[in-house]
What we know:
Blueprint: H1 16-29, E1 42-44, H2 45-60, H3 68-79, E2 93-95, H4 96-100, H5 111-131, H6 141-148, E3 155-160, E4 168-175, E5 181-185, H7 191-196, H8 199-205, E6 211-212, E7 216-217, H9 218-222
Parallel strand pairs: 3-6
Antiparallel strand pairs: 1-2, 3-4, 4-5, 6-7
Amino acid sequence: QVLSLPIVVIVHGNQDNNAKATVLWDNAFSETDRVPFVVAEQVPWEKMCDTLNLKFMAEVQTTKGLLKEHYFFLAQKIFNDNSARFEDFQNRRVSWAQFNKEILPGRGFTFWQWFDGVLDLTKRCLKNYWSDRLISGFISKQYVCKLLSTEPDGTFLLRFSDSEIGGVTIAHVIRGKDGSSQVENIQPFSAKDLSIRSLGDRIRDLGQLRNLYPNIPKDQAFGSHYNKEQTGKD
């Protein structure tokens, strides 16, 4: 006899996301010699970070995992706390409800539904960009504004959308003639959008984008991801 990985039976595809959350939580946090189906209701945030990192690397098939600043953003999101420091989250515990039951403030989805959407998008369309560290990804809109506000005109970075499941957006700085700066976010691209035209080619198309933050010319950063354009009638 051997113990199998957790199994969840579903009756419709719309239950798939919740089933994956149940399997992930059970697989990561249950004890081997437990009473059947008993699993902790709360787990240390640090343990959750390790689980999300392993899941991300396995799903996307990349060797480039999550960074310290990514964990900080994810902690702010799941605990709905933008005032705490990174160290303040170290001793917190995250509950199953926070992970996949409670709707994120101002959104129509849970933390896991959002994270799983990022996983799917990255796996399908952004694997090479992520592996080349061209995507900041897990970073808040407010922090992006702080980073870019002092940068030259046309500086940009890529972050996963906060408001949509499975979207990546480009934030870029526009400087007025008076020297004032404004950070704009381009409408998020979904996997469907990126299957029509790749992220690299979209970045090449957008003339207002010049340097990837902090200061890498976009053709140098993304040149290897451009597709050779067709000539003639196209």
